[in-house]
Amino acid sequence: MKRNERNFNNDRYNNNNNEKKVKLEFEKSDNEIINLFQNYSKILDEDNDRRERIVKVSRDITIASKRLISLLHRVVFEDRNTILTQAHQDLVKVNALIGNIIKELEGQEYWKFQKSFTWGLQEYTEAISFLYFIETGQLVPVDYIHDKIKESNNIDSLSTFSLSVDDYHLGLCDLVGELMRYCTNSVTKQKYQDCFDCCEFVRTIFTACKQIRQFRPNDSKMSMIDDSVKKIEKICFSIRIRTSEFPDKQLKITADPDMEV
Amino acid sequence: MNNIFEKFTTELEEEYQTRQNIKTITQQIDSVERKLTLYIQNYHQQQPQSQDKPNYQQLLKELEPIKEHFGQLKTLIKPIHYYKYRDHWKQHLSQIVFCLTFSNWIDNKTLLKIDEIQTLLNLDKPGAGQLSIELEDYLLGLCNLSNEMSRYCVNCVIRQDYDTPLKISLFVSDLFSGFRLLNLKNDIIRKRYDSMKYDLKRIEEVVYDISVRNLHNNTSTSNNNNTSTTNTENKMVE
């Protein structure tokens, strides 16, 4: 702030000097430029304000999505149905936030503002795909997400809004990290089948991401996914090995220090 | 699940292809833009008596092929995606804005408005689903303009043109007061705008040097002198 003020004062100082000089040396000043810029100023302000509002909503979406995700992690330890009902209620709230963005984008360029809400949408994709996976064990289709948003906001069309391929893809990359946590949690509750399902699912995403990489290099995310996939595979590997040793006993695998993730 | 990814991969593949195509077109735009920038250099080197002065009309001719290139972009990209790919060509736009406004000011002493430039390039007005020059491109172009003016100003003096620097000073200070009306965020325009005051300072120093020696009051006579010498030269050639 201080720096800005100083700049401002500087500008004013320069300006005073100019005006004196201009008055001294020239009779008439071109007011047309000033008029033009007054108009430009309005346009810029409008865009900046809109962008600011969208960024705020996007931040709210991120926070709400993160909360939804941590709620979903409890599904391993608590009653599944209560958690899922709660999750759907929360999802409606996040969708309402997205509804705000849709309103802001009406009659506007989607891609002009996309950078302002991409983080929120990625986190949202992560949350909704996690929910969908827990419920169905499947990958969430984009259309399902669109329908959910429409449903919560009581609208027929999303107008210019849509979940971009990029946001969807990046959201899924983040999902892998969550699934890794989900898998380790499941192991502690001896839900071994969940671990294998999860492993299968994650591997498909991993392969798909590798495939996509030729069009969309994204190495930082890839190495993250790589780590998560390896951890999940190691968990599943251990489950197989240990259970084969004692086929008729329930194992407490978590006691093994190797398994700590 | 694989289905979803397949659809998704084809979509990305198409996008990749589109980007490649855009790059070929923007390369052509780039080469036109370079020609324009090169042409602008002539303004600095021109001699008062030289025959082929650089002029705005000539510049517009150089600009001609760019209309076609933007036309190609329009057919290649779906309107909704113009903004997505804009990064590929936006830097050229602000440079073109600069070349046009510079040349036009020197010939006509007016500031080309953003709408006029849109028309020159055969582009539409900014709005949803339009490929156009954005305000940002235009303003960046104007920042370049003030920078180039500070150089041109010096070169005017070198060729004993004492009148133009005064006009430039007035023009750039107007431009600067215009920029001051904008509420800029901490973005690229803001940075460029911050450097504008140094351009202005440089121009004012030139004006100071001229004023303090009272050179601009003699311009009319020196101009006469110049024309008379060229006249005599012409006569001699004849």
From TrEMBL, chain A:
Ion transport as UniProt keyword: no
Q: CDD domains annotated for this entry? A: TRAX (cd14820)
Q: Which InterPro entries does UniProt cross-reference here?
A: Translin_C, Translin_fam, Translin_N, Translin_sf
Q: Which UniProt keywords apply?
A: Cytoplasm, Nucleus
GO-annotated molecular function: sequence-specific DNA binding
- Tell me which domain of life the UniProt entry assigns to the organism this sequence originates from: Eukaryota
User: A Pfam family matched by this chain, by name?
Assistant: Translin
Q: Give Gene Ontology CC terms.
A: cytoplasm; nucleus
Intracellular or extracellular location(s): Cytoplasm; Nucleus
SUPFAM superfamilies noted in UniProt:
Translin
Give a yes or no for keyword Nucleus in this entry.
yes
Family recorded in the similarity comment: Belongs to the translin family.
What is the recorded name of this protein? Translin family protein
Organism of derivation? Tieghemostelium lacteum (Slime mold)
TrEMBL record, chain B:
What role does it play?
A: Exhibits both single-stranded and double-stranded endoribonuclease activity. May act as an activator of RNA-induced silencing complex (RISC) by facilitating endonucleolytic cleavage of the siRNA passenger strand. DNA-binding protein that specifically recognizes consensus sequences at the breakpoint junctions in chromosomal translocations, mostly involving immunoglobulin (Ig)/T-cell receptor gene segments. Seems to recognize single-stranded DNA ends generated by staggered breaks occurring at recombination hot spots.
Q: Is the Cytoplasm keyword given for this protein?
A: yes
Residue ranges annotated as compositionally biased, kind Low complexity, are 218-232
Give the organism, scientific name: Tieghemostelium lacteum
Indicate the family of this protein.
Belongs to the translin family.
Please give the chief subcellular localization of this protein.
cytoplasm
Q: Which GO terms describe its cellular component?
A: cytoplasm; nucleus
For this entry, the protein name equals Translin
GO terms, biological process? RNA metabolic process
Query: What does the UniProt entry say about where the protein is found?
Result: Cytoplasm; Nucleus
Q: How does it assemble?
A: Ring-shaped heterooctamer of six TSN and two TSNAX subunits, DNA/RNA binding occurs inside the ring.
Q: What InterPro entries does this protein's entry cite?
A: Translin, Translin_C, Translin_fam, Translin_N, Translin_sf
Q: Which UniProt keywords apply?
A: Cytoplasm, DNA-binding, Endonuclease, Hydrolase, Nuclease, Nucleus, RNA-binding
As one GO molecular function, the record gives:
sequence-specific DNA binding
Keyword Hydrolase attached: yes
